[in-house]
Write a structure and sequence with these properties.
9 strands; nine-stranded antiparallel β-sheet; 35% strand; alpha+beta
């Protein structure tokens, strides 16, 4: 099982950051956030071992003891990955925007889909297609260049799977790397306080409507 443990904080104490980094969390740096709020501090566990229940409990205890902490902690499992090399441009009309909404207090997602393109490699067609979705996105520097990552979040894993398939089947590609898709399901989620900011989500009904429009516009 490939897992990922990360946190996003709108506020966090200095001592908490030190404690987390002592547990092998490393800060992530994002910029140009769209349709989502930028975190004051975002970090991912980079230890040699897969995160386990003991680590999860330890991190939760650290965050609960920080009266300043406002954010989320998530342990996610990789479900699927795929790379789209694209369809002919004539078959790749721009998609309708995917409806997104603020996640209600006390709710945690079931899964999310990440769509990534390398900025200096992606074709204009794939970039335009992803931008037309009008979902949460941000840029991130990696060792192999600057990447743009688009994320859609759902309350049910089957909805994430339907969106994943629909996008990877239709998006125009181009460029050496194509468009990289990743579907992850939430194993554990902590949201402190209950109304702490999260990525926007899409309901099943809104996804149904979007898929009908997507098929109608083909």
């Amino acid at each position: 099982m490939v897992t990922d443990l990360h946190l996003a904080a709108a506020d966090i104490g200095y001592d908490t950051r030190v404690a987390l980094e002592g547990l092998h969390f490393e800060e992530d740096y994002f910029d140009d956030c769209r349709n989502c709020a930028a975190s004051v501090y975002h970090a991912t566990f980079r230890g040699e071992q897969e995160p386990d229940d003991q680590l999860w409990s330890s991190v939760c205890a650290i965050l609960r003891s920080d009266t300043k902490f406002r954010g989320t902690l998530e342990l996610e499992e990789l479900v699927r990955t795929s790379t789209s090399r694209g369809r002919p441009l004539a078959e790749s009309a721009l998609p309708p925007a995917l409806p997104i909404r603020i996640c209600p207090a006390g709710i945690t997602k079931a899964c999310d889909v990440h769509l990534a393109v390398r900025a200096n490699d992606a074709s204009k067609a794939s970039g335009d297609w992803l931008n037309a979705l009008d979902i949460a996105s941000f840029s991130k520097h990696r060792t192999d260049g600057r990447w743009r990552i688009f994320t859609a979040t759902f309350l049910r894993l089957p909805d994430g799977e339907r969106f994943f398939d629909a996008v990877l089947q239709r998006i125009p590609g181009g460029g050496e790397r194509g468009v990289n898709g990743k579907l992850e399901r939430l194993v554990y989620g902590l949201r402190l306080p209950a109304d702490a900011g999260t990525l926007p989500l899409t309901t099943r009904e809104e996804l149904d409507q979007w898929l009908r429009r997507l098929d109608h516009d083909r």
